[in-house]
Write a structure and sequence with these properties.
alpha/beta; Rossmann fold; DNA polymerase, domain 1; 2 domains; 10 helices; about 10% strand; globular
């Protein structure tokens, strides 16, 4: 087998973040007297996506993302809030979510018998560690690298330099990253000089960022990696 080290994204790769986010937003909106309509959800997600993209590009900090997004959203609803306080409430709701994606526990259990697995994820450390723990996925990984702890974020080369410096005897030609985000995981892997596997269950068009491999189901991973 060519690969020995597998770097896994978390959200919408091995854990169903969309389901977790839906439940957390519903609870948060209701706490402020709002029904979670498709329009309100889309409005929040647009604001949130734009902020995270600015973070990935190094234009703003992670703290700015999480401390500003709800203030900006609730402004669109004519409601003034203490944005950092709302973020804390949202974080509590979010921490409860750990729905597995695509039987990821069984797939990781099998992969861990053949490869060295690591987590590479942008986000908040407390949330990611707790969700992986609650989902009973932590034992499959040799280490977990969350952007908040590293001081950098995917797709920055510095993030991956930090990761590689802490993986014993790692070789880039024997390493591959698996993730659902073209701009974070796949571009990050390319900037780091490693192969990439794009998890694309919705069959999106990759556009300018071309992965080394593409899969639609996590069950395709082991056969692909054993070649």
């Amino acid at each position: 087998m060519k690969y020995k080290t597998l770097l896994f994204d978390v959200d919408d790769t091995i854990l169903d973040f969309q389901d977790t986010e839906d439940q957390a937003l519903k609870a948060l909106f209701e706490a402020h007297g709002l029904e979670m309509t498709p329009e309100r959800k889309q409005s929040y997600q647009t604001i949130n996506h734009d902020l995270w993209q600015q973070f990935e590009q190094g234009k703003i900090t992670r703290d700015q993302v999480i401390n500003e997004r709800f203030g900006l959203f609730f402004e669109t609803q004519g409601i003034q809030v203490d944005s950092p306080a709302v973020e804390l409430a949202y974080r509590e709701f979010l921490n409860e979510g750990h729905k597995l994606l695509d039987n990821s526990d069984e797939i990781l259990a099998e992969l861990a018998q053949h490869f060295d697995l690591y987590v590479v994820t942008n986000g908040v450390s407390e949330t990611q560690y707790r969700r992986l723990e609650d989902a009973k996925l932590k034992p499959y990984f040799r280490d977990i690298f969350v952007s908040e702890d590293t001081g950098y974020q995917k797709p920055m080369k510095e993030y991956f330099d930090y990761v590689f410096a802490r993986i014993p005897n790692v070789k880039k030609q024997e390493t591959v990253i698996i993730g659902d985000s073209l701009t974070s995981d796949i571009l990050g892997g390319q900037l780091a000089g490693i192969d990439t596997i794009w998890f694309n269950p919705k069959k999106k068009n990759s556009g300018e960022i071309q992965p080394t491999f593409e899969i639609e189901r996590l069950q395709q991973l082991l056969p692909l990696l054993q070649h």
